[in-house]
Structure prediction request, 313 residues.
Amino acid sequence: MIHGMRDEQNMKRMGALRKLLPITSATFLIGWLAIAGVPPFAGFWSKDEILLYAWERSPILWFVGVFTALLTAYYMTRQIMLVFFGQPRWNDAHAESSDSHEAEVHESADDAAHDVHADDAHDDHAHAKPHESPWSMTLPLVVLAAFSIVGGLLNLPFGDAWHVLGNFLQPVLELETANGPISLEAKSTVSSGGKFALAGIAAAAALGGVAAGVLLWRRSVDRPELEPAVLQNAWYVDATLARAVSGPVTKAAEGAAWYDKFAIDGAVEGVADGVGGTGRLLRTVQNGFVRSYALIMVAGIVGILVFLGLVAR
Prediction:
């Protein structure tokens, strides 16, 4: 979707894309129904089995799982409504971007020619419609969508004979203990009637989340009463982590930078500066003048004679 929208990631600047991106839209819708846990898609069977074993451990865990499944169905439906249905808002988004660009152009009269060319290029980009991705991107989507439909058949909860995937992996998922082998595939103790009841509740939760998403987001993309600041800021998780981590990490990085600059680079550059200084000092006596070399030779001879005279004495 981001590729088809030319790197746009704001869902509120999309809308009505199911006709312009038919393959991506169809596979996305299938993935939506699967991850929402709508039967008979693959996601329903995997979630149902997880919820079944959660029920056996604790009804509280089961309730948390069902509520989470409902939320998943809701926010995925919200995404579907904003991206694929409703009115096309990508024209408005491009118009806003184009207007802001024109304002920038008029602010700089000195660079008028350059800005006009940039504005023309921007207009070409802005008025290009969202487009379908090439087959190298859509083919994997089709394969994944197909498995999202039939993948659940690999491990249906209707008895051991239906656990095709579990039976296939049995030799791998087997632990040897002092009392013999233990299979990692859990065995449910819930009755058949209980399984159907739990599955029905899970399916109802998924459908309820889908219905809530459709009812709340089919008419408007701006619902401030449903988007409080805590949700717009992702529960402040990123901000909290940034404040907790950035301080110590920044100080450590600054310390490492100082050590690198003054200790490591300082030592290397110090050696280089010492060699360079020594070279510059020695270069003063290698000036190419014969008279300088003769003077050095005379000074050397005088020095030797003085040394010999002192030793003889």
